[in-house]
Amino acid sequence: MNKITIAIDGFSSCGKSTMAKNLAKEIGYIYVDTGAMYRAVTLFALRNDLFATDGSIDTARLEQLMPQINISFKFNQATGAPDTYLNGELVERDIRTIEVSSHVSPIAAIPFVRQALVAQQQKMGQEKGIVMDGRDIGTTVFPDAELKIFVTASAKVRAQRRFDELKQKGMPADFDEILRNVQERDYIDSHREVSPLRKADDAIELDNSHMTIAEQQAWLLKAYQSKV
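Above: the chain's sequence. Below: its structure in token form.
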């Protein structure tokens, strides 16, 4: 069977990673969470005090330090999913905090950051047989992907999902703060100059506001089977 490239794009907290991860597992493809890569750069920037109190970023210093940032993924047998490593350190939990969530969109809007990570992502997908999720996979990273899906859901539904996920992990969560963060990220992601979030012309839209995980997995599998 011919291997294809599957690009899943969409708004923050709409379950892209879960569906991409599950689909990859089901069809035996490699899964890459590009959001985790931007989160890892954000964590690095926070740890190195590259954010000023007003939220602005010391981009000159970050650009200088970019060659020191090494992001890799290792498969976790227990969770059945890849974990994110920053310079050899397991940071899967650290990159999912609300602090990282509230700083990631400005980092992801920096042209040299996107350029560096897009190049890495394209290298990962050279052999096909990959499921990649993010904001610009179908428009910038893999514009020739055979299957492109654009996922959306209402901001309140997405905030509730993020709230439930943090609570489940035993992490602090405030619904209003999360909703505000979701709305701010939507605006920044859609209005940034480089690779803004938008639906590719040939992408299939999936609104999963009122779908169960099982229902969306069945929908995804059907979309995949129509392309192979």
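Residues 161 and 200 are 25 Å apart (CA to CA).
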